[in-house]
């Protein structure tokens, strides 16, 4: 019998260890303190609430413009007993093949062959409003004003904090002042994040339809694992996601997070569909040979032309839309094909042996 290669180990749900928000209500972080490490790369937060003193380190990617990644199909490096192993897009598409029993099951239920990867920002939660509230609160504390021009608002939402503070708002000139404002900005963002309990409109109904179809789902974010799990618990979405990719996975780019999610879902990248709202995320999905469905809102429709499908809201989607994304191509689409030269077979000469 044919064996499955490169199978991921069966592990319990990532949400099993997370405390339920319904069993013990929590007050959102009454005391948040940040301390900057000497290397200047990572912010740490201590939270004295909910029965524990130390909180995992906060990711430095909340207000940072991340790299797209996988421009040439490169992946990430993992370690095995016999040494490091480079995992790229082609490697995963080759190794994550369906075994014999899976091919039979997917022939009967083709929707289960897909894998859905949801980005966190503005796809699961409305993080733009959280970021904008953090900037407004910071401006109120500092006695500053935020211009209401549309291009400045977009730069504040989608730009790096260093660039916004120094080049757009002109609030910080010295490094010490920059570090203080960034630390306070992240603190205000997490205070709002700990209160978030409402997903994007229509997401829960869409996840119900996907779950009924048997399609596995994953969520990818730069948040740390505990913040992600608690946020999903508050929104009652934990049961829909088979895997999560967080800052602890140590992925260097957006594309690497998508590849890590594909490995955790046990699906080839070419069989995965990414839900994004950012053109950079759409490009990262295509670099990983994945399909991309973009949500119009944070970015206008003309900036999301590269997406395979663009919708204004989840209510516009159906499972049949996912099938149509792959309907125009077969398994070997865009693969190198050998040209077959038709040659007539050689004519046989009749002899005594061939007649009798």
Keywords:
356 residues; alpha/beta; 6-stranded parallel β-sheet; elongated; disordered N terminus
What is the number of beta strands?
11
Q: Major sheet: size, sense and barrel closure?
A: 6 strands, parallel
Portion of residues within helices: 25-40%
Strand order of the largest sheet: 8-7-6-9-10-11
Query: Number of helical segments?
Result: 12
Q: What letter string, H or E per element, gives the SSE order? A: EEEEEHHEHHHHHEHEHEHEEHH
Pairing-aware structural class of the strands and helices? alpha/beta
Radius of gyration: 25 Å
User: Which regions are unreliable across 5 or more consecutive residues at pLDDT < 50?
Assistant: 1-13, 15-59, 330-340
The gross shape turns out to be elongated
Strand-residue proportion: 5-15%
Average pLDDT figure: 79
Tell me the span between the first and last alpha carbons.
Answer: 45 Å
């Amino acid at each position: 019998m044919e064996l499955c290669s490169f199978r991921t180990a069966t592990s319990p749900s990532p949400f099993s260890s997370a405390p339920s928000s319904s069993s013990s209500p929590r007050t959102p972080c009454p005391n948040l303190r940040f301390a900057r490490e000497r290397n200047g790369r990572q912010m740490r937060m201590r939270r004295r609430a909910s029965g524990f003193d130390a909180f995992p380190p906060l990711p430095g990617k909340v207000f940072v413009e991340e790299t797209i990644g996988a421009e040439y199909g490169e992946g990430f490096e993992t370690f095995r007993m016999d040494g490091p192993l480079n995992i790229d897009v082609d490697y995963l598409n080759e190794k994550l093949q369906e075994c014999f029993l899976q091919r039979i099951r997917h022939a009967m239920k083709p929707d289960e062959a897909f894998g859905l990867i949801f980005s966190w920002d503005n796809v699961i939660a409305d993080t733009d409003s959280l970021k904008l509230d953090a900037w407004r609160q910071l401006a109120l504390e500092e006695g500053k004003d935020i211009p209401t021009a549309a291009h400045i608002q977009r730069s504040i939402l989608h730009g790096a904090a260093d660039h916004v503070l120094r080049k757009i708002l002109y609030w910080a000139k010295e490094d010490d002042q920059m570090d203080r404002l960034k630390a306070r900005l992240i603190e205000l963002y997490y205070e709002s994040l700990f209160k978030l309990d409402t997903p994007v409109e229509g997401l829960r109904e869409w996840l119900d339809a996907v779950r009924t179809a048997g399609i596995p789902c994953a969520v990818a974010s730069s948040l740390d694992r505990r913040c992600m799990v608690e946020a999903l618990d508050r929104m009652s979405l934990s049961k829909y996601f088979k895997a999560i990719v967080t800052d602890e996975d140590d992925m260097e780019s957006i594309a690497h997070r998508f590849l890590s999610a594909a490995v955790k879902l046990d699906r080839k990248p070419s069989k995965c569909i990414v839900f994004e709202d950012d053109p950079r995320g759409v490009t990262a999905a295509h670099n990983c040979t994945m399909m991309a469905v973009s949500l119009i809102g944070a970015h206008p429709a003309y900036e999301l032309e590269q997406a395979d499908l663009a919708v204004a809201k989840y209510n516009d989607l159906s499972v049949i839309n996912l099938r149509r994304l792959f309907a125009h191509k077969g398994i070997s689409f865009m693969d190198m094909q050998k040209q077959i030269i038709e040659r007539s077979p050689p004519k046989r000469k009749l002899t005594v042996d061939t007649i009798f």
